[in-house]
């Protein structure tokens, strides 16, 4: 049963529904930035590794003299590679900051929901199986969205 169905049947209040939907939205936002950060970190690591391997193993003679180093640096492909690595570094740093902000927002709301459980779950009567509405919703959120509201 979805949160919408719980609200439509009157088993949770409108404010509880709104807060849980906001929590789901923040979790998705956190996961989105986490995936982007992982992809950009992988790209950054890959391109930096290629650069280091090419300097030390493929063209080891470029470090023997200043002339060879100057020749390597003056190539447009080297500049393009450095700009590409710098761009990956910039976007990785940006995504890391956004992920941290999204994670802080999510954790803050999650802890607030846990702290205010008495206010949010007013009609907490067990059904024929002994499960409460709160337990059913918390289990649903854990299963569908990996949101754990059982404890901090």
What's the topology here?
Elements: H1 3-8, H2 14-58, H3 66-74, H4 76-115, H5 117-120, H6 133-145
Question: What this model shows, in words?
Answer:
It comes from Sporolactobacillus shoreicorticis. The protein is mostly helical and about 150 residues long. The chain contains 6 helices and no strands. α2 (about 15-60) packs antiparallel against α4. The chain has one domain.
Q: Compute the number of structural domains.
A: 1
Task: Catalogue the unreliable spans.
Answer: none
- Assign a percent range to the helix content: over 70%
How far apart are the termini? Answer: 24 Å
Q: How would you describe this structure in keywords?
A:
152 residues, mainly alpha, rod-shaped, transmembrane
TL;DR of this structure?
Keywords: Membrane, Transmembrane, Transmembrane helix. The chain is 77% helix and 0% strand. It is an all-alpha fold and 152 residues long.
């Amino acid at each position: 049963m979805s949160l919408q169905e719980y609200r439509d049947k009157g088993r949770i209040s409108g404010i509880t529904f709104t807060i849980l939907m906001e929590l789901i939205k923040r979790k998705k936002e956190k996961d989105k930035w986490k995936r982007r950060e992982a992809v950009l970190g992988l790209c950054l690591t890959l391109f930096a590794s290629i650069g280091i391997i090419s300097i030390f193993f493929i063209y080891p003679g470029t470090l023997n003299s200043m002339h060879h180093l100057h020749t390597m640096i003056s190539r447009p492909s080297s500049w393009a590679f450095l700009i590409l690595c710098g761009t990956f570094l910039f976007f990785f740093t940006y995504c890391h900051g956004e992920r941290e902000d999204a994670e802080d927002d999510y954790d803050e709301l999650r802890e607030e929901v846990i702290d205010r459980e008495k206010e949010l779950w007013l009609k907490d009567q067990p059904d024929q199986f002994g499960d409460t509405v709160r337990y059913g919703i918390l289990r649903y959120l854990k299963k569908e969205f990996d949101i754990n509201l059982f404890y901090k």
